[in-house]
Amino acid sequence: MIFIWYLIQCQKQNEWKILNSCRQNISRTALKDAFIFTYDRMHKFHGEWHLEKRLMFPTYVFLESDHADALVEELKQYEGIVDLLRASGKMIPVQKNEEMFLSDLCGKSHHLGMSKGVIRDGITQIMEGPLQGLEERICRIDRHKRLAKVEAPKSLPQGSILAGLEIVEKS
């Protein structure tokens, strides 16, 4: 069986509710898995840094299935809540290169942890974390917010993703 990832879009702040509802109400025949991608980032409040988990793709839920027709049929119960269909009447499939990129980056947990790195002579080197080896994909680093903007396959919802990155040294 070949399982394919599909995207559904829902209203902002309803992602977890839709995810849990899909997991509970859609049959295992139509749906192998439903998930949301998250990432860690640091956020400073009350004078201290705290680790937060954020949505990588706000308003999107990923569904994995090998029976697209059955999945579309069962998702009809969510009409008006989620945007399932394009003009062609098909769900939005995730391309294999996008799936591989996200799987390699986030693993089975669909979560991107924090990375740590240094900047030496203007060159970023990731010392630990999931961004290690992906330095050439980093488009922008916000050292103040401890975030990196990482180039993703262009057909993903944003074309880039945010990832937690702490630069511990700059020389």
Largest sheet: 5 strands, antiparallel
Structural class per helix/strand content?
alpha+beta
Separate helix tally: 3
Give the end-to-end Cα distance, rounded to a whole number of Å. 51 Å
SSE order, one letter for each helix or strand: EHEEEEHEEHEEEEEE
Helix content: 10-25%
Structure description:
Helix content is 18%, strand content 42%. The protein is elongated and about 55 Å long. Strands 1, 2, 5, 6 and 7 form a five-stranded antiparallel sheet that branches. The protein has one domain: Alpha-Beta Plaits, CATH 3.30.70. The model is unreliable at 85-89 (pLDDT under 50). The termini are far apart. With 171 residues, it is of the alpha+beta class. The chain is built from three helices and 13 strands.
Identify the notable features of this structure and list them briefly.
171 residues, alpha+beta, Alpha-Beta Plaits, five-stranded antiparallel sheet, five-stranded mixed sheet, 13 strands
